[in-house]
Specification:
Porin
Length: 473
């Protein structure tokens, strides 16, 4: 159509120029005849253009009707969903994460803290580690679904764990722009590492505060809403409600709401090559007979307890056993703050990158600690306030190579009568052939008690197969 218009205008312009140049030589009759001819040509081209535009509009209308009818005929329950659209097919992926571990100490317990099953240091020797199977897709134009199942290689066999299964809203659901709701089971927003799966970490194991306060990660059943404010400066806030069956709560047998969370995060860029983010978090709930193992309560008290430390005096009352081997029933509140800074010296994170990261945890518990000794039950109202932190730095000095160091520290519960505060140091180096494969060598030195030192060597591989979503900031 544009070509026709251009041709017509070109002819008209040429004729007008010629008529103008010969105006003095032509008679009035010839001029009028030429004008009539121009009008006829112009009318003919305009009619042809209008006719073609009409035919195009009719074809577009028929195509639209056919597409709508086809969509409705496929699924009358959800007329807007094209179930044969490849964009809605599930994305399936797997993460393979095997390792070799060597420990110099037979003891992996942390005096003054009860560890959940996931918070233990892991299996020594060769292990398949944890294999993740992921499935995710957009349910329709308003919801997104995700499932993560983990196959964990244990000494006594393979254990199947349902890590995540949730539904998340998409922008078309009707919530305010920037608001998102997630329902089901997920690694909820609390600190930095908790939202990430272990294979996305910069080290082969998690720092001490995550092991003792969150059993490596909090992924209870519940719902969470978050809202990113429409500002140039990154501001996100939100909170959630949960069943309260996962560590650090545990013990709940019903389906009531026994815990909740709240968080606020801020962040921004610094120039073109760096960015930062800070956050504050709170997790509050009820624990019923919380003990170790899988983080769930038991009907009977833990029958084993640690022996008194060598630095204790004969006849002196000690409460270490209550925190190390007992059970807790009462209110638990956990606070955390985190910080993350990313700098790309060359402006390209794939070439060089520096990551600085840290988190601080403070746990306040009010309730009763119970210990069974020689079939005798002892109960104490103790101050269980404790805290811990870690800081780490990772430097990518070449596109495929990184090195890193991490320090983590715990401060024992106030009434535990433990004079030593556990700490751990880790250094690592890893090589990535691509974004889908990584090999890592790590050395840990842990000083968990006055007479509990452990030198550890960890060799790890992480391989990604199939579809896998990008990791969060």
């Amino acid at each position: 159509m544009n070509k026709l218009r251009f041709t017509a205008m070109t002819v008209i312009f040429a004729v007008l120029v010629l008529s103008g140049s010969s105006a003095f030589a032509a008679s009035d009759e010839e001029i009028e005849a030429l004008r009539n001819e121009i009008r006829a040509m112009k009318s003919e081209y305009e009619n042809r253009i209008l006719e073609m535009e009409k035919k195009l509009k009719e074809m577009e209308t028929k195509s639209s009707r056919a597409e709508t009818t086809y969509s409705k005929s496929k699924d009358r329950s959800f007329p807007g969903r094209a179930i044969y659209n490849r964009n809605l097919n599930p994305a399936i992926g797997a993460i393979l994460g095997g390792r070799f571990a060597s420990f110099s100490s037979d003891e992996g317990d942390i005096p003054g803290f009860v560890l959940g099953h996931e918070g233990e240091r892991g299996t020594e020797g060769i292990s398949l580690g944890e294999t993740e199977l992921n499935l995710s897709t957009s349910v329709d134009d308003k919801f997104y679904g995700h499932i993560t199942t983990a196959l964990v290689d244990e000494v006594d066999g393979v254990e199947i764990e349902l890590e995540e299964v949730y539904v998340e809203t998409l922008p078309g659901v009707g919530l305010p722009t920037g608001a998102t709701m997630r329902m089901g089971r997920a690694f909820w927003t609390f600190g930095y590492l908790n939202e990430h799966h272990a294979h996305a970490d910069d080290f082969a194991d998690r720092p001490l505060p995550y092991r003792v306060f969150l059993d490596n990660g909090f992924n209870d059943t519940g719902a969470q809403i978050s809202y990113v404010l429409p500002t140039d400066f990154y501001i996100e806030g939100g909170g959630g409600i949960f069943r309260g069956n996962d560590f650090p709560f545990a013990g709940g047998e019903g389906t009531d709401i026994n815990s909740f969370s709240a968080f606020l995060r801020l962040g921004s860029d610094i120039g073109q090559n760096s960015s930062w983010r800070v956050g504050a978090y709170m997790l509050d709930g009820e624990a019923t007979s919380r003990t170790g193992g899988h983080g769930h309560g038991e009907e009977h008290a833990h029958e084993e307890h640690m022996e008194e430390e060598e630095h204790g005096h004969e006849g002196e009352e000690t409460h270490e056993e209550f925190f190390s081997a007992g059970m807790f029933t009462g209110d638990t509140r956990l606070y955390a703050v985190d910080f993350r800074y990313v700098w790309a010296p060359t402006g390209n994170i794939h070439e060089k990158e520096l990551l600085l990261q840290g988190e601080y945890f403070w746990r306040d518990e009010k309730g009763v600690y119970t210990l069974t000794e020689d079939e005798e039950v002892h109960e104490e109202n103790l101050n269980g306030e404790s805290s811990g932190w870690y800081a780490q730095g990772v430097f990518k000095f070449a596109p495929q190579w990184r090195i890193g160091a991490r320090y983590s520290q715990l401060y024992s519960p106030k009434d535990s009568d433990i004079e030593h505060d556990p700490y751990a140091v880790a250094v690592m180096g890893d090589w990535s052939n691509s974004e889908f494969s990584r090999l890592r060598l790590q050395y840990n030195y842990e000083k968990l008690g006055e007479d509990l030192s452990d030198n550890q060597i960890l060799l790890q591989y992480i391989m990604s197969i199939g579809a896998h979503a990008a990791h969060k900031y």
